[in-house]
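REQUEST FORM: STRUCTURE PREDICTION
Request ID: SP-0412
Submitted by: Lab K.M.
Chain count: 1
Length (residues): 310
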Amino acid sequence: MTDELVRAVTKDNAFRAIAVDATQMIKKVSEYHQTSELGITVLGRALIGGLLLSNALLKDDDRLALTIDGNGPAGKIVVETSAEGQVRGYVTNPEVELPLKEDGSQNVGEAVGVDGYLTVTKDMGEDMEPFTGKVQLVTGEIGDDLTYYMAKSEQIPSAVAVSVDLDESGQVIAAGGFIVSTLPDAKDEDLDKLEAKLADYPAIGDILEKQHNPMDLLDELFGADDLEEVDRTRVTPYPETSKARYAQMLETLPIDELQAMHDQDGGLQIMDRFTGKTIDFAADELANIISEMQAKQNENKDNASENEDK
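STATUS: Completed
RESULT:
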């Protein structure tokens, strides 16, 4: 089973719709972060929401960063994603736990909180300055807040729904969602009909569990005969950052800082917040990095002296 994101338009050109099944990816993320049931529900909804927003607002290899900080017990949520279907993210407190709501669902709203903001930054390439939009959190349920963001900051009336379903043992069994946005041809009666369908829409997990086909989410909303599928994109986590890449990052630090880590701590341990994994640099590895940096500095000094002599 492959996670996919699908784009479609209604044949009357009233709505554009995007849906995603991200079940396998959310399962992997839950293993990365050793989350509680509430923690993976919070993070999973944010990851799905980020995928939907990036595909609604960006193109090609443009990237989007989504931050949700409502000062709730879950802490800050950070998501990075692209229009090509790659995504990663973390929540500050992945082991957050709260009593279930009266209907038996996870209390995402209380975990996230509403004393803060949802911030979206779009990076659309070197030729354009990044754009940042920011809105006050409304409910903390994430889908509601993304809906509000689309209307308030992007000026695109939309409906966003995100869901992570767990079994009795807390394992992810279905994760996905959709975003529906109005197009210029939408009429008032089209909007009224959509609102009515959204009000009676079944559980996203119940639909995805059958075939894990994201198009089923949109067929349920509009009817298969009224939709035209545009394209599909595979959904995957961003590749893990390699140890070699972390070594390159360390080379941007001052040598005296690295030397202090070597002398005082006997090495360095880095936590990758996006995967929950640790990357260890032993004392001899730090010493090699320091030696290479010093050699480059000496080489640069020699080259500068030669240029001055000329």
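NOTES: The domain at 243-309 is CATH 3.90.1280.10 (CBS domain Like).
Reviewed by: T.R.
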